[in-house]
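Note to self: user wants both folds in one dump. Writing first protein now.
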Amino acid sequence: MSREQTPLEPLSVASSQPLYLQIKSALAQRIQDGHYQPHERLPSESELMKVFGVSRITVRQALRDLHGEGLVFSVQGKGTFVSKPKAMQNVQRLQGFGEAMVPQGYEASTRVISVQEVRPPQEVAEALGCKQSDLVIELKRIRYLNREPISIDHSFYPADIGRPLMGRDLTQDIFPLLENEFDIALSFADLRIEASLAGTGEEQYLNYPVDSPILKIRRLVLAQAGRPVAFEILSYRGDAFQYHLRAER
């Protein structure tokens, strides 16, 4: 059925749910079922006021809630648009990319850019507990969700761990490989999350414009004995990915 044949339904004045929440729910449902596509403009505030018979304040409260949930974004002078859905990974669990994404129904894949022995930059040497004169294994990969590039994974491993990896299929998740084939029991990871801007590397590999928002993760993975196993710099497209955590008081 076309959109013209499925107009927005009137609000229920008998409902205990506030009018703005009814509007928000109606619009959210249309976004989630694909009636409104990513980057498509929603009806204007005036159009929504007319359809639902409510004030501008009520419409704006509904749109604010949609903004808060990341379902829409606004462009000054042009209106409100549907956001591209973002994949989500829970930082409370130490998982590889595929381990986290596949159970959510995504098709996850990987392309290896390079794997080589290098002298580590100072940041990497400090994280792995080695000297800058030592050799480490550097692995660069592009990660894809539903065949669209979503991140650049830049990983470093101590030489004795990384060299055996060089002969393996590195398009798969590394964590299960370390645990199941190399008998390295992983324990936890320290993460630092920061906002950044895309550079020429992200533009080239992620098809993402320079100066667009990037979610940059620095992740130090440690074995149960406390030894650093990997130091990773993960650069995610800001329009396509989010991390989730729960903070208890």
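First done. Writing the second protein, which came from a different request thread.
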Amino acid sequence: MYKIALNFEDGVTRFVHTLPGETVADAAYRSGLNIPMDCRDGACGTCKCKSESGQFEMTDYIEDALSDDEVRAGMVLTCCMRLESDCAISVPASSEVCVRSKQEDIHGQIFALNRLSDSTLSFSVAGDQVKAMHFLPGQYVNVHVPGTDQKRAYSFSSLVQASNGSASFLIRIVPNGLMSTFMTESAKIGDEIKLSGPFGSFYLRDIKRPILMLAGGTGLAPFLAMLESIKATGTSHPVHLIYGVTYDSDLVEMEKLEAFASSIDNVTVSACVASEKSAWPQKGYVTNHIDASHLNNGDVDIYLCGPPPMVEAVSHFMKENNIVPANFYYEKFAASSH
């Protein structure tokens, strides 16, 4: 048996012990702590933490979940991490979020369904159980595909609305995708739908310094929820969002973003399109539009959500330009191909 010190970002440290051959994630769960995770088999990267000390073995994970650069930087996947000595790891979440609670299915009904573009749609789920949900802006749930045993992970694109108890999501439309096909061909207002969660350590922390938000495609969703939260509380620090897509037709929710920028002091937004054929004024990738003022000489919290190539590109950009922010929170996702 080895001892693990789990150091949470709110300054709390918890100690747990592993059984022979047990992973760190399983040991924590057995001890009443739920390190954020989704897959448990080295595929999603949700349980990523930072190793501070100790020896361990870590195998059977894919590079999309943990890159070679991240391994060299001391990052670990706790679902694949088996100890060979006492260890200490930093968990990128608060201890409160990681206290294990019983996960129950949440039942609701489709409240709204809107095709935003050829590539994106939004839907809302409402009901008494949805209205009672507690989640942090930026977290996600698993949405069960009706009529199947499959589920898909989607970040909340809104807070729960007090007026009707609904919460919203963005979906990238994938040809022949299970959820895409259901939502575009079968779904109707009032249909029953089931959620599980919430999950994830990608969420808006207390704002203590300027924030730079970088969104790619439907990675915009968690930032919409974050901006809604900031609108409710206000902030004295500048917050800038750069939203990047591939084609003009992929730009969605621009009116909502502009409304946030005009109604919240210290919040600004911009969007860019990567296609050379774009008619949008700002072209290129999000990294082409990061200004020195957004980085505040490194005293900045960067939040990034997008597909794996975007996350890797931003990480390399930061490394090449010696950008070391106070905090770097990110979540990468890949649309299911079925």
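Dump finished. Worth passing along: The chain has nine helices and 18 strands.
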